[in-house]
């Protein structure tokens, strides 16, 4: 069997980062993240002896017509697209083009958007065969087994045998593919969800299927890779859709297994720079300290960044991060208004934000802050308060996002109920655009405040000097100006 895994090309030339909850254009980070979900899917399929191709149009230049030529060359049995909310309309057009050109090829999509709105996706694209809901790796493997066994619906043989009664009577139970949705005639069938996987059951990502030199860490100007450290977050933040995809129970890898992958990436691909990918790396203190201890014990000379909640760090932890190679930590600040933080069920205080940034700088780490402007209880005053707060914190970097009611989040339900969403165009559901018109604050006003936030934060002489100090040689300046051009597309 042949499977083609794709981060699809954009019809409007806007390249979108596609990894779990992160669905923003490339310019947001002036870099593209390595396609971790697709690489993990590929590794699981390769263990099955399935022939896998992987193409990431987020970094590769290409058109839908060129993708069709690739499909013609590979002749896959199944094409799987990794889709996002802002790109979903274009992504489904790619599905249609694929099916019309190659009717025998099965099509499937993965991502938070189809997990949250499977019926809408099927209704928008009659050529779509399957939706893989929630985390995709083992569901995709079972779907491939089913496709090999059946040309009708995803029910596979051989059958599971179950005994019934003392007489030892056996009945045949069809092995249904948990976690998928599909069509049967005019009906859309949603199989039961697949139980959450054990992170240590995942193999190392199939990075040999990509060109790792395409993924460059900003400012360090060297290739980097994503490393999955855990999945799931128990916190009920209303603006986040991640629990729809990865659940609320924290599932971590063993520290040894995690560091094995880091060491393997260095030996196999020469990669020593990493982004630790999780909902929040620091939810379990014992886990993160064990990871740092393992890195230090093995003498790995690596550099990495991670994210964290502000209420889950202390000085000893942050100093261990620095010793183990961490150079930057990102915090979800969201807002400087305690009333706004409480309204989105963030579960942190403004004082905890201040303390976390202070301790991180004390440990010698750079700090990036992430703020969401235009949340339901935001006002002109609270947004300007947040802008002032980021300047007072002396953050090294900051991202200002527009609040987006992504499907799968509580905020989406709230926005639909209150008729705040001002468009049916999914491509506008980007974090550099507001689609929310409140009675007290319009989308246009939110976007103007966001532009003001960036101008105020990054145009300060102190900030300009801090950035320029990071540039050591001529090539750094060339890359930096390219980063600025990319970043302007995010503005």
TrEMBL record:
InterPro entries: BchE-like, Cobalamin-bd, Elp3/MiaA/NifB-like_rSAM, Methyltransferase_Class_B, rSAM, rSAM_horseshoe, rSAM_sf. The keyword Chloroplast does not apply. Its cofactor is [4Fe-4S] cluster. SUPFAM superfamilies: Radical SAM enzymes. PANTHER family: ANAEROBIC MAGNESIUM-PROTOPORPHYRIN IX MONOMETHYL ESTER CYCLASE-RELATED (PTHR43409), SLR0320 PROTEIN (PTHR43409:SF16). It comes from the Bacteria. Residues 219-456 form the Radical SAM core domain. The lineage of its organism: Bacteria, Candidatus Desantisiibacteriota. Gene3D superfamilies: Cobalamin-binding domain (3.40.50.280), tm_1862 like domain (3.80.30.20). GO terms for cellular component: cytosol. SMART domains: Elp3. GO terms for molecular function: 4 iron, 4 sulfur cluster binding; catalytic activity; cobalamin binding; metal ion binding. Keywords: Iron, Iron-sulfur, Metal-binding, S-adenosyl-L-methionine. Residues 19-154 form the B12-binding domain. This is Uncharacterized protein. It holds the Pfam family B12-binding.
């Amino acid at each position: 069997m042949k499977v083609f895994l794709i981060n699809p090309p954009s019809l409007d030339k806007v390249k979108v980062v596609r990894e779990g909850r992160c669905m923003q254009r490339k310019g947001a980070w002036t870099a593209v993240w390595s396609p971790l979900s697709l690489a993990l899917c590929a590794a699981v399929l390769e263990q099955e002896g399935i022939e896998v191709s992987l193409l990431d149009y987020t970094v590769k230049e290409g058109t839908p017509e060129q993708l069709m030529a690739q499909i013609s060359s590979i002749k896959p049995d199944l094409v799987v697209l990794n889709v996002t909310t802002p790109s979903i309309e274009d992504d489904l057009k790619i599905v249609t083009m694929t099916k019309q050109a190659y009717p025998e090829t099965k099509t499937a999509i993965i991502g938070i958007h189809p997990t949250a709105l499977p019926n809408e996706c099927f209704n928008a694209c009659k050529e779509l065969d399957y939706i893989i809901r929630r985390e995709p790796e083992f569901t995709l493997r079972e779907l491939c087994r089913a496709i090999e066994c059946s040309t009708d619906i995803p029910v596979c043989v051989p059958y599971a045998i179950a005994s019934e009664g003392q007489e030892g009577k056996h009945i045949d139970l069809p092995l249904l593919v948990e976690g998928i949705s599909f069509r049967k005639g005019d009906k859309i069938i949603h199989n039961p969800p697949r139980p959450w996987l054990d992170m240590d059951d995942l193999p190392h990502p199939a990075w040999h299927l990509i060109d790792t030199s395409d993924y460059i860490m900003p400012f360090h100007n060297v290739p980097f890779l994503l490393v999955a450290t855990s999945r799931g977050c128990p916190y009920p933040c209303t603006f986040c859709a991640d629990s729809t995809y990865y659940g609320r129970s924290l599932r971590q890898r063993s520290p040894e297994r995690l560091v094995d992958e880091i060491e393997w990436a260095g030996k196999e691909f020469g990669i020593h720079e990493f982004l630790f990918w999780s909902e929040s790396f620091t939810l379990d203190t014992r886990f993160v300290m064990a990871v740092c201890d393992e890195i230090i014990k093995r003498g790995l000379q690596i550099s990495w960044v991670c994210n964290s909640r502000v209420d889950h760090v202390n000085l000893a932890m942050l100093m261990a991060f620095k010793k183990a190679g961490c150079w930057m930590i990102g915090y979800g600040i969201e807002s400087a208004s305690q009333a706004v933080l409480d309204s989105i069920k963030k579960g942190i205080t403004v004082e905890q934000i201040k303390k976390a940034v202070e301790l991180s700088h004390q440990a010698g780490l750079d700090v990036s802050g992430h703020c969401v402007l235009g949340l339901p209880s935001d006002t002109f005053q609270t947004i300007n308060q947040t802008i002032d707060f980021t300047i007072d914190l002396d953050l090294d970097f900051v991202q200002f996002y527009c609040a987006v009611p992504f499907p799968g989040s509580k905020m989406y339900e709230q926005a639909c109920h209150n008729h705040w969403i001002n468009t049916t165009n999914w491509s506008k559901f980007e974090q550099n655009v507001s689609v929310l018109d409140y009675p007290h604050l319009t989308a246009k006003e939110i976007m103007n405040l966001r532009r003001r936030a960036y101008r105020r934060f990054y145009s300060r002489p102190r900030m300009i000097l801090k950035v320029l100090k990071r540039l050591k040689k001529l090539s750094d300046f060339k890359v930096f100006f390219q980063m600025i051009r990319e970043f302007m597309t995010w503005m």
